[in-house]
Amino acid sequence: MKLFDHKKSKRNASAAFFLVLLILPVLIRLVCDNSQQNYFLNIFIMCFYWAALTSSWNLVAGYLGIFSMAHQVFFGIGAYATAMFGLYAGTSPWLGFLVGGVCAALVSVVIAVPCLRLKKAPYIIIATMVLAEIVRLVFTNLKTWTRGSSGFWQIRSYENISGIDFSGVDKIPYYYLILIIFAVIVGACVYIVKSPTGLAMEAIRESQEAAEAIGVNIARTKIKVFVVSAFMAGVVGAFYAHYMKILTPDAMFGQNLMTEFIAMSLFGGTGIISGPIFGAFFITILMESLKSLANYKLFIYAGILILVMIFLPGGVLNSKSEFTSGTNKLKKHFNKKSGKAAQTK
Q1: Closest to 227 (Cα-Cα) out of 127, 48, 103
Q2: Residue 43, burial from CB neighbour count under 10 angstroms (0-12, 13-18, 19+)
Q3: DSSP secondary structure letters along 43-68
Q4: Which of 98, 85, 95, 131 shows the shortest CA–CA distance to 112?
Q5: Residues 229 and 211 sit within 8 Å (Cβ to Cβ)
Q6: CA angle 154, 155, 156 (to 5 degrees)
Q7: Closest by alpha carbon to 132, among 96, 92, 104?
Q8: Whole-angstrom Cα distance, residue 172 to residue 140?
Q9: Burial class (CB in 10 A: 0-12, 13-18, 19+), 69
Q10: DSSP letters along 290-333, please?
C-alpha cells in the first residue's frame, strides 16, 4: 500500500507541488533581502539536483531491482566531460548538457555489459563499487587532463540568453534552469514507468526467471534503462559543473556521494516516483537546518535514518500500512486506558 493511491489526488498533489516551486523565488524575494534570497535559492537548487539524481537512480534500483553502486560515476563523468570539453575544445556550456549526458551514457554501457550479467545483488554491488573506484583512481591520476586531486577549475559560466544573467550573482536563473532539468527528468521517469518498458522492469525486479518465461528481453531492458538513467545523471552533472565551478575526483566519484543517493531514496521510498524526491528535499533541508550544530547534526541525521529503517522499512511514502497499523495500536492503547479509568471511577 502506498500513500496517495488515488490517481486524481496524486495528479493534484503533483500539480500543486510544481506550482509552489514555480512561484517560490517570487515569494522568497518578497520576504528576504538579497543575501538571504541567494541562500534560500541555493538550498532549493541543491534539492532539485539531488532529487533529479535520486529519481534517475530509482529507475535502476527501485523499479528494475539492480542495486548499482556506481551511479555517482555517471554524475561525475557528466560534470568532468562538460568542464573539460569547455576548457580544451572551447565548447559552449549549453552544449555541455548533451556532451555530459552522452559521455555518461557511453561509460554506462561499459559498466553495464559485464555487471548486468550478474543476477545476485551482492555481486552487482561489489562489481559496481569496484568499477566506481577504478574510475575515481583514473581521474585522480590523469593529472595532465583532470588536475588530479587538486581539482578541476576554470569552468565557464553559462552564456547569457536574451538578457538573462547566468554569471551567478543572481541565483534565480540557475533556480529555473535546474527546475526545468528536474521536471524533465521526473517526467521522463513517469513516462518510462508507465510504458511497456516499465512493466518489463517490474517483472524483472520481481523474478528474472518469470520475466524471461513471459518473453521479456532481460538483457536489452536492463541495458536500456541503465543507459537512460546514466544519461540523466550526466545531464545533472553538467549543470553541477557550471554551477559549482570546481570538481574533484573524491567529491564526484567517491562512495560518500553514493551513500547520499541511497539514504535519500530509502528514506522517501524506492519503487515510486515521489519517494526519492521527498527524501532528497527532506534530507537536504534537514541538514541545512542543522548546520549550526556542526558534527552533532550527523548523529541526528543517522538517528532519523535508523528510526525510519526500523519502523518504516519501505520508506516514508511507501508505508501506509505501517502508519495505519501504528495508528490503530495507539487508538487501542488509549481506548483501553480510558476504559480502565472509567471502571475505576
Answers
A1: 103
A2: middle
A3: HHHHHHHHHHHHHHHHIIIIIS----
A4: 131
A5: no
A6: 110
A7: 104
A8: 34
A9: buried
A10: TGGGTTHHHHHHHHHHHHHHHH-TT-GGG-HHHHHHHHHHHHHH
Q: How far is CA 284 from CA 44, 132, 260, in A?
A: 9, 24, 10
Q: Three cell numbers at 90?
A: 572551447
Task: Name residue 247's beta-bridge partners.
Answer: 152
Q: What is the SS3 assignment for 259?
A: helix
Residue 19 CB: number of other CB atoms within 10 A?
Answer: 10
Name the grid cell of 227: 543507459
Short-list 101, 335, 59, CA closest to 204? 59
Dihedral angle over CA of 84, 88, 92, 97, nearest 10? -20
pLDDT tens for each residue of the chain, 345 residues long: 444 456 677 778 888 988 999 999 999 988 888 778 889 999 999 999 999 999 999 999 999 998 889 999 999 999 999 999 999 999 999 999 999 999 999 999 988 888 877 777 788 889 899 989 999 999 999 999 999 988 898 898 899 888 888 988 889 999 999 999 999 999 999 999 999 999 999 999 998 889 989 889 988 999 999 999 999 999 999 999 999 999 999 999 998 899 998 999 999 999 999 999 999 999 999 999 988 887 788 888 889 989 988 888 888 988 765 566 666 666 666 666 666 666 665
**Alpha-carbon radius of gyration of the chain:** 22
What's the CA gap between 329 and 147, in Å, rounded?
59
Task: For residue 195, give the C-alpha cell.
Answer: 510504458
Cell of 142: 590523469
